[in-house]
Amino acid sequence: MIFELTEEQQMIRDAARDFAQNELKSGVIERDEHQKFPTEQIRKLGELGFLGMMVDPKYNGAGLDTVSYVLVMEELSKIDASASVVVSVNNSLVCDGLEKYGTEEQKEKYLKPLAAGEIIGAFCLSEPEAGSDATSQRTVAEDKGDHYLLNGTKNWITNGGTASTYLVIAQTHPEKGHRGINALIVEKGMDGFTVGPKENKLGIRGSDTHSLLFSDVRVPKENRIGEDGFGFKFAMKTLEGGRIGIAAQALGIASGAFELAVNYARERQTFGKPIAQHQAIQFKLADMATQIEAARLLCLKAAWLKDRGEPYAQAASMAKLYASEVAMKATVEAVQIHGGYGYVKEYHVERLMRDAKITQIYEGTSEIQRMVISREILKD
Ligand code: CAA
Ligand code: FAD
């Protein structure tokens, strides 16, 4: 068993670390405060190849492995989880899904600009009444021969306002249940497609979350991904990879908070010595470090399985379940270690604590990850 990163993986991790320090850090508090999307930073991440990291270079991707993707997600998320969720959605929910299941025409038209970071994508599964219970889709894609007529509402869509290309899951044959669902590529600007108001959120406030409304939107048949009725499996398969991205985001939030806590504990003096010399603080740091390392290993294991072409659904869910819980615990402890300073914005840890919570909710709540894991266990 080799735990060493290749030289290339180390280089990519260092590039992401530099980018986070030099490009993301300075404006992160202001973007959080004003719910400002990191437009310029995302453009630069696209130029660096971080928006189509695992896509084949023939479709404008960087052709890297999933382990590198985890490393990049961790580094970006240490500083700005609002920027990193854009990276996660574009890479693993949009580009990966299109590359695996799209036609050559769809890859030429949509994947190439998405992987190059020229445009951004969104993945639209959740609805006002269909979140965890994702098979109960109310959005309808009626088969009209050469096109689908799309009607319904999607909720909570990341990149909802900034995206140009949307992968929309909708029901075509209600009598077939989840086997009647399709995945359609919808373009911003199609008649009848409206972006709802931006959500005012607890965390990842720089990211752009909207509801989407579809009213008699004509989507050409050639925009369907896969065979008729493949849409639910498309969503589930694609989310397997997405959960690795969010697990790595949670890992980054936790390790960002940990680094801040260690630095602060070394500097802050009470009772005549740095608080790092009080055993109560040392034990907190020890627990945080241990849990973060365990989360990192779960993330890397899931990525490694994916890179080897082995089944990884259970590993991805374990990584997301554990890393998101570590993110919550570590950020709460980081605020505690900072005392009153942890409660104000300049010290960053309160933001990381608010950002951590979403990792237990999106791309399948912790309860849903436990369902996926236990089903895999009991399957055998
Ligand atoms: N791969 C392939 N097929 C799968 C699959 C997988 N990983 N998981 C399920 N399926 C198939 C099943 O085999 C079954 O098909 P057949 O009947 O043909 O065999 C079908 O899907 C239905 O499966 P279940 O009976 O297991 O379905 P269920 O209703 O019990 O739900 C679930 C399963 C895992 C709970 C699923 O509904 C789920 O994942 N819910 C959470 C939704 C979610 O994660 N949403 C995230 C939205 S995106 C997002 O959040 C992005 C972001 O924030 C940034
Ligand atoms: P519900 O499904 O109503 O769940 C409510 C509670 O009940 C949860 O605690 C849940 O775990 C629990 N629960 C539900 N069923 C069970 C069960 N069977 N057993 C035990 N507990 C259960 N969706 C997208 O499609 N695309 C996106 O880009 C996207 N981005 C998002 C960004 C943000 C900021 C947010 C908040 C959400 C985003 N989502 C997105 C939606 C997200 O995936 C859903 O919110 C999530 O899947 C949960 O669905 P729900 O909110 O409807 O909660």
UniProtKB/TrEMBL annotation:
| Cross-referenced CDD domains | SCAD_SBCAD (cd01158)
| Domain spans labelled Acyl-CoA oxidase/dehydrogenase middle | 122-217
| Keyword Phosphoprotein annotated | no
Which parts of the sequence belong to the Acyl-CoA dehydrogenase/oxidase N-terminal domain? Answer: 6-118
Cofactor(s) this protein requires: FAD
Q: Which residues form the Acyl-CoA dehydrogenase/oxidase C-terminal domain?
A: 231-377
- The answer to whether UniProt assigns keyword Flavoprotein to this entry is yes
Which UniProt keywords are given for this protein, alphabetically ordered? FAD, Flavoprotein, Oxidoreductase
Q: Which Pfam families match?
A: Acyl-CoA_dh_1, Acyl-CoA_dh_M, Acyl-CoA_dh_N
Q: Supply the SUPFAM superfamilies for this chain.
A: Acyl-CoA dehydrogenase C-terminal domain-like, Acyl-CoA dehydrogenase NM domain-like
Spell out the Gene3D superfamilies in the cross-references.
Acyl-CoA dehydrogenase/oxidase, N-terminal domain (1.10.540.10), Butyryl-CoA Dehydrogenase, subunit A, domain 2 (2.40.110.10), Butyryl-CoA Dehydrogenase, subunit A, domain 3 (1.20.140.10)
Give the highest taxon in the source lineage: Bacteria
The UniProt similarity line reads: Belongs to the acyl-CoA dehydrogenase family.
What's the protein name? Acyl-CoA dehydrogenase
Which lineage is the organism of this entry classified under, starting from the top rank? Bacteria, Pseudomonadati, Bacteroidota, Sphingobacteriia, Sphingobacteriales
